[in-house]
Design goal:
heterodimer; A: 4-stranded antiparallel β-sheet; B: 254 residues; alpha/beta; Rossmann fold; Dihydroorotate dehydrogenase B (pyrk subunit), domain 3; 3 domains; 7-stranded antiparallel β-sheet; 6 helices; 16 strands; 19% helix
Amino acid sequence: MNLSVTLAGVTLQNPVMTASGTFGSGMEYAEMMDLNRLGAVVTKGVANVPWPGNPTPRVAEVTSGMLNAIGLQNPGIDTFTKRDLAFLTDYPKTKVIVNVCGRTAEDYVEVVERLADCPRVDMLEINISCPNVREGGIAFGQNPKAAETITKAVKRVAAQPVIMKLSPNVTDITEMAKAVEAAGADAVSLINTITGMKFDINRRTFALANRTGGLSGPAIKPVAVRMVYQTAHAVKIPVIGMGGIACAEDAIEFLMAGASAVSVGTANFHDPTVTLKIIEGIEAYMQRFGMKDVSEIRLKED
Amino acid sequence: MKYRCNAAVVQNLPLGDDIYDMWIEAADIAACACPGQFLALYPEDPTRLLPRPISICEIDRACGRLRLVYRVAGAGTREFSEMKPGDFLDVMGPLGNGFPLENPGRALIVGGGIGVPPLLELAKSLPGEKVLAMGYRSRTYLEEDLRAVAELVIATEDGSKGTRGNVLDAIRENHVQADVIFACGPLPMLRAVKAFALEKDIPCYVSMEERMACGVGACLACVCQTENVDEHSQVHNRRICKEGPVFDAREVVL
């Protein structure tokens, strides 16, 4: 049985990865699970310099999901390469996908250039979809022209394959996917969080200091599955699916919809070892349906 | 080391004012837990994804049990409050750093509201002379447990017991002298305690609270502002669940 998948020339031992921002660089989870069993670790977004993020409260629970407005707090590329990438060299079986954020195109380019000579980095994921920072992030993710510009700028200097992470907060996500594909993206990942809001009716204020936050968790899964399906049928580059995956059955839906691989995010907060259970569950599903290769999970339509 | 386990509920009694007194069986966690650390409690309701951080009130290592005294704040803690002896509760811990167990002379342990529980185990574990000062709105709780460990001064907002006013009023009225302060409670109380410690020029440790998601330091939700650049993110934010919840009061911006 073959669980491995190849994305833009990079072969992952299985299609399950951690979603950026929910898993740090794996350090906090290493004592609870074997990181070497993951398809890939997708690290928390890193910028050219340290970012302090948003004021607290930064998270709020909602029915079957959560809102977050962390605001991309990160230590900057210097500390990241010295500490986080050094840590990940102890887990050679897992691929490393570095999520990159920035305020301007120059910021993104600087980080991508710095990562060019880091052999531990297998792929880059460019975050143009964070709904919680005003500049950068989403500014590039809601306009096909802007997405194209940033993709081209990054591709010019990238040494590793480039995944563009797309926002669901658009009218037609396939327009965005087609724009970044035309600009040279090697893959797309979707969906980032959906912008939401919650009030604290007892304190009579916004639940989040940032007022709005990104909705994640099982609440958004049907939206994510639909967008992955649409995108997988609109572009030729691989699609990495995510949004509310909490068990193997959820992951299998995304693979049926056309995703080549999947990311698990919010569910890590409920169960730090959920990714390993999902890998085992996919294997069991393939066995049940007599599948030899994980790619057979994709639904073949007449 | 952190442990995730299904802990048997041994006792879960209401103390009034929506506060509950629970004992759970979690031998692995009890064996290595320290005062000031907390547990992540996971609701059984699958629509509630995030663990609830609950401080450890008492540790019974001999029996492998932990005491959790918590207040119902929403649907998640409401679910915990309805659990009966013999039910099982999904928990992870111990989490966070805990209080430094150093007492240069006379320690003042200050609690307010639902910040009182973790101070019971601290009072029991801390060596040397100590005095406890607890502030309540009206009805007290854990009073007998605290009194059994050390001298206790009380403040109530309505004056129904002890000093009328806040816990600082009680400390001043009783002329409490201290060489070090440990505190857990609402932010205005922590601010006042920090100011008091600075005025007396004595060390002060505060236990902080914030909305959390992962509980292990990965998601960066529960940060507090710090005076110095933090090691993790190279900004001025330390993670309450990981580097905290206990901080040197001089280090955190309250």
